[in-house]
């Protein structure tokens, strides 16, 4: 693959193309076995020679001297503020067309917390889709989104159902377009518990967590976009509990907007404003389009608040039946 201008002298020790939902991303680094690749499922790795949609160069030892961006995000990275509550040493960001270059130390801390999310936002802002923070699984020909606050049991719920018949779509990021769900093939960060096979997991960047590759953990995987059929709000409270209630559309839309709308959850509003050329009216148009699409999607399918200990067989079977019925039982 031809190297971008001004980067030909960089000695690459990692060079891998991965798929992130509808996009292919080349990750190039002068760091051997660049740690950020751990967060992509093996199923996301593309064959050698794949021409990527976007390139990300993460350079720690070499500085090609490219000028820094003038965007708000580049200024934040330069001051050591990454995104939401992620901080670290200053990072210089330079982007041109389909290429992003980051220069600094421990850049693996930025690939998932920021770059992947930014690229999904940029793609959906350009194509008219919607980027969501959500897990997703399927039964038959319909997909169900699982959303909720951190620690609400989304990954445990997903794992319990996908190990017992449901089809895995994604654990973290979703692109919704044309009423269909497409997932991003990431590894799953989970805390130790009965749902986690320690032997089949590896250490995460956070020492309290382990990584599971869904390509190895689950027997069934969606090969493409799946029509959205239902939304579940995960709200695990206590062992042995099982309480599933359908929510009115206005309540459901408000919850999903605050806990699953990628632009809000990941604080990407300044990135969208820069994508709009700093034009607040263009920003308002894009934001309004995304918000309307989100509310339409939620209003067109049933939404349930799910409080359930999925480790119990009886509870799991009831949830699998609801999943298969598409939220009609």
Short overview:
This protein has about 325 residues and is of the alpha+beta class.
Structure in words:
With 329 residues, the chain is α+β, with helices and mostly antiparallel strands. It has nine helices and 19 strands. Strands 8, 9, 10, 11, 12, 13, 17, 18 and 19 form a nine-stranded mixed β-sheet that branches. It is globular.
What attributes does this structure have?
nine-stranded mixed β-sheet, 9 helices, 329 residues, globular, disordered N terminus, alpha+beta, five-stranded mixed β-sheet, 29% helix, single chain
Please report the distance between the alpha carbons of the first and last residues: 53 Å
The sequence of SSEs as H and E is EEEHEEEEHEEEHEEEEEEHEEHHHHEH
Supply the helix-strand structural class: alpha+beta
Residue share in helix: 25-40%
- Percent of residues in beta strands? 25-35%
- Major beta sheet, specifics? 9 strands, mixed
Any idea what the radius of gyration is? Answer: 20 Å
Extract low-pLDDT stretches: 1-5
- The tally of helices reads 9
Instruction: Compute the average pLDDT.
Output: 89
Strand tally is 19
- Describe the global form: globular
Question: How are the elements arranged and paired?
Answer:
Layout: E1 14-20, E2 23-29, E3 54-59, H1 72-79, E4 81-83, E5 86-87, E6 92-96, E7 99-103, H2 108-127, E8 130-133, E9 135-139, E10 142-147, H3 154-162, E11 167-170, E12 173-177, E13 180-183, E14 188-190, E15 201-203, E16 210-212, H4 214-217, E17 226-234, E18 242-246, H5 249-259, H6 262-265, H7 269-275, H8 280-299, E19 303-308, H9 313-325
Parallel strand pairs: 2-3, 3-7, 10-17, 17-19
Antiparallel strand pairs: 1-2, 4-5, 6-7, 8-12, 9-10, 9-11, 12-13, 13-17, 14-16, 15-16, 18-19
Helix pairs in contact: 5-8
């Amino acid at each position: 693959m031809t190297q971008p201008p001004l980067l030909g002298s960089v000695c690459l020790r990692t060079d891998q193309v991965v798929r992130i939902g509808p996009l292919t991303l080349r990750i190039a680094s002068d760091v051997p076995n660049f740690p950020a690749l751990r967060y992509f499922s093996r199923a996301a790795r593309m064959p050698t020679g794949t021409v990527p949609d976007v390139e990300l160069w993460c350079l720690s030892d070499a500085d090609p001297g490219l000028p820094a961006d003038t965007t708000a995000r580049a200024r934040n990275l330069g001051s050591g503020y990454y995104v939401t509550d992620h901080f670290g040493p200053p990072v210089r960001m330079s982007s041109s067309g389909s290429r992003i270059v980051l220069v600094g130390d421990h850049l693996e801390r930025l690939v998932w917390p920021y770059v992947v999310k930014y690229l999904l936002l940029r793609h959906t802002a350009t194509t008219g889709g919607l980027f969501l923070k959500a897990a997703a699984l399927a039964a038959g020909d319909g997909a169900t989104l699982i959303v909720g606050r951190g620690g609400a049991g989304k990954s445990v719920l997903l794992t319990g159902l996908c190990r017992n018949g449901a089809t895995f779509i994604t654990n973290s990021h979703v692109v919704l377009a044309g009423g269909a769900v497409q997932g991003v093939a990431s590894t799953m960060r989970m805390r130790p518990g009965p749902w986690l096979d320690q032997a089949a997991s590896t250490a995460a960047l956070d020492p309290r967590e382990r990584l599971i590759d869904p390509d190895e953990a689950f027997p069934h995987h969606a090969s493409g976009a799946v029509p959205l059929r239902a939304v579940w709000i995960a709200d695990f409270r206590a062992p042995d509990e099982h309480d599933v209630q359908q929510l009115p559309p206005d309540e459901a839309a408000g919850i999903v907007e605050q806990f699953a709308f990628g632009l809000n959850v990941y604080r990407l509003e300044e990135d969208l404003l820069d994508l709009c050329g700093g034009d607040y009216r263009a920003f308002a148009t894009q934001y309004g389009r995304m918000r309307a699409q989100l509310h339409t999607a939620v209003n067109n399918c049933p939404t349930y608040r799910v409080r359930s200990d999925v480790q119990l067989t009886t509870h799991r079977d009831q949830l699998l039946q609801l999943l298969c019925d598409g939220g009609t039982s």
